[in-house]
Amino acid sequence: MLYFQPENDIYGPYSFKCPRYAKWKKQVELEKKVMEAIPKKFWDKNFDNYIPVSEDTKTALEVCRKYSSAKAWRTGSNLIILGTYGIGKTHLAAAIVRFAITQGDNAVLVTAPSLASGSIEDIRERFKHIRNVELIVIDDFSNEAEHKLVAGEIFELINYRYEAECGLVITSNLTPSNLKEALGDRVFDRILERTLILHIKDVDSYRKRKREKYLEWMD
């Protein structure tokens, strides 16, 4: 229970219990952690406001909820979410990160392009910075591993977390076979042992649907 003590009070220093203040402060601290862990565009994303529009997206939502409820990252279990652009993969990934933070774990969502940009020192420092986070989400992975240095850092990251039994979530627009090719056989085989792959195939892009909605006036 937190206590609040006004400063320079005319009645002298005193303290009183304030449950509402404690709840508010806890929520503020939680939201601060979320904002530090997730890009601004996805600060408000959670499981409750994810709207599935097909059987695959319904399954993806259910699986992501189960992964989160079981705190599966704590035992080294991984999750890969595949599908075309604009179908809500990052929304689900951000929701997992938000849930992990509410459970008291350190979690972070980083984009694959951001990990692969900059100088050699920049790239190495980014990978070093995230390797011990309890839950890592690498969003929008594509062909970053074509960069020899990045490929080595990705393997080291996956191998390190494999041995430490720490989970990893990856989202990508690649197909399973293309993902294997992009990661390379040794990386893919290393991660596959503890990984569930979700492939969302039966839905049009959310962005396309939104565009059609905004152009309804033309009908």
From TrEMBL:
Domain of life here? Bacteria
Ranges for domain AAA+ ATPase come to 75-198
Pfam families (alphabetical): IstB_IS21
Q: Which GO terms describe its molecular function?
A: ATP binding
The UniProt entry, under InterPro entries, shows: AAA+_ATPase (IPR003593), IstB_ATP-bd (IPR002611), P-loop_NTPase (IPR027417)
Q: Which GO terms describe its biological process?
A: DNA replication
PANTHER family per the record? ATP-BINDING PROTEIN RV3427C IN INSERTION SEQUENCE-RELATED, CHROMOSOMAL REPLICATION INITIATOR PROTEIN DNAA
- What is the protein's name according to its record? AAA+ ATPase domain-containing protein
- This chain's source organism reads Kosmotoga pacifica
